[in-house]
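User: Hey, quick favor. My workstation is busy. Could you predict this chain's structure for me?
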Amino acid sequence: MAPLKIIIFEDEFLLAHDLKLQIQLFDYEVIAIFRKAEEGLKFLEEIKRPENLPDIVLMDISLAGKMSGIEAAKILLEKYSFALVFLTGMSQMEVFEEAFKTQPHAFLIKPFDIQQALVSLRLAVYQKSLENELLRYQEIIVK
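Assistant: No problem, here it is.
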C-alpha cells in the first residue's frame, strides 16, 4: 500500500520539518510544507490529477501571511476531500469553537510528541474513511 500523502501548513519552520521527518518514519509521505495559506492553496489548485492530492492536511491555526488556518481550511474543505487535522498552540476556547465549525477530523495541541501525532493522523484517516463510506451508502439509497 502506498504511503498516505500529507501537506503541512505550519509557520514554524523547525516544527514543520521535525514533524515531517518523524512522521515519514511511519509510512506517511509529506509532499509539501507551507508557511502561508495562500501558497498552499495555489499549490493545490495546480494539482491536476486527483491521485496527487493529499490524503491528510495538517493545518496550523495561526499561519504567516494574511489568511489564518481556519480560513484556509474552510476554502480547502469546500473544494477537496481529505482529512483535516488542526495544529495549534492556542488553548482559548473561542479559537477552538471557530475551528470546530470547519469539522476537522482531529486536533494536535502543541507541544505534542510523535505518538500523539500518529494517533491523530490515524484517527483523522479513519474518520474520513467513515465519511466516505456514508456518502457512498447515501448515494446507493438515493438511486
